[in-house]
Amino acid sequence: MSISFEDVASDVRRIVISGRLDMPGTDSVAVQLAQLTAAPKKAVVVDLSQLRFLASIGIRALISSAKEVQKRGGKMALVVSKGSTVMMSLEATGVDELIPVFASFADAEKAVLA
Amino acid sequence: MPSGFDELTIRANGEEVRRASDWLHARCRQHEVPEEHVERLLLCLNEVLANVIVHGGGTALSEPVKLHFETSVDEGRGRAGVTVSDAGVAFDPLSVPSRASPKTLDEASVGGLGLVMIRRCSDWLDYRNEHGHNHLTFGALWNVQ
């Protein structure tokens, strides 16, 4: 389980999460994710393309982060591989309709800066 | 596809959920359950066990949780089911009304997502409470060539 970030432009932060966002995995990264999405960048892209499993506890953490970003007038998007288990979790809960999902970082970056 | 069943007993905690996931994955592979259905069963298992841990109360955490896996083929239909038995607070997830999907992020609630996922990822659900234990079964169905 790992979480890392990179500030790729003046207003965009890319956060990469790999491993499993199940109960122990989310417990280990939730605080960092909240801190990284809280400030200071306006737009955030959370890259889940290396994530192998996404349970509802992980989705809750993503929703909370997206709400925080939105509260300060920014946008958050996700990068997810099409047809993956992670995409299945997002579709099953309808969260793909609430937080924009893209197959590439470039497309996600364009969307959060639009 | 070979029919059969298997059982596992775990404690109710996060690390044991991973052990249960590995066990279910291995059983599904052994019984040639198609991968897309394995993924659905694994999601359901994680959510059911998370509910036991978070909402089951002290008895759920102190008593063992039993898992029963069963698979079969009948008239060209494959079927795999998992029953989770726990000693926690009685809870029938089938009694909870389905809620409308939120249309915006503002409307989105962070609670209740596990139950939504269980309903969407399973082809059937069954619940009974016997002798002070919850027994929740979820499963997947598919066509066998």
Question: What do these coordinates show?
Answer:
The complex is a heterodimer of chains A (114) and B (145). Chain A is α/β, with parallel strands linked by helices and 114 residues long. Chain A has one domain (2-113): Transcription Regulator spoIIAA, CATH 3.30.750.24. Helix content of chain A is 44%, strand content 29%. In chain A, strands 1, 2, 3, 4, 5 and 6 form a 6-stranded mixed β-sheet that branches. The radius of gyration of chain A is 12 Å and the shape is globular. Chain B has 4 helices and 5 strands; from the N terminus they run E-H-H-H-E-E-H-E-E. Chain B is globular, with a radius of gyration of 16 Å. Chain B has one domain: Histidine kinase-like ATPase, C-terminal domain (Heat Shock Protein 90, 2-Layer Sandwich). Chain B has a 5-stranded antiparallel β-sheet, with helices on one face. The longest helix of chain B has 21 residues, at 35-55. The A-B interface holds A 20, 22-24, 27, 53, 55-57, 59-60, 63-64, 66-67, 70, 85, 88-89, 92-95, 97-99 and B 14-15, 17-18, 21, 39-40, 42-43, 46-47, 50, 53, 101-106, 108, 110-111, 113-114, 116-117, 120-121.
Number of strands of chain B: 5
* Secondary-structure element order of chain A, N to C: EEHEEHEHEH
Number of helices of chain B: 4
Question: What CATH architecture of chain B would you give?
Answer: 2-Layer Sandwich
In round numbers, the mean pLDDT of chain B is 94
Radius of gyration of chain A: 12 Å
Q: How big a fraction of the residues of chain B is strand?
A: 25-35%
Alpha-carbon distance between the two ends of chain B: 10 Å
Strand order of the largest sheet of chain B: 1-2-3-5-4
Q: Total number of β-strand segments of chain A? A: 6
How many helical stretches of chain A?
4
Regarding CATH, which class of chain A? Alpha Beta
Q: Please, what is the CATH homologous superfamily of chain A?
A: STAS domain
Q: Average pLDDT across residues of chain A?
A: 94
Molecular shape of chain A:
globular
Q: Major β-sheet of chain A, in short?
A: 6 strands, mixed
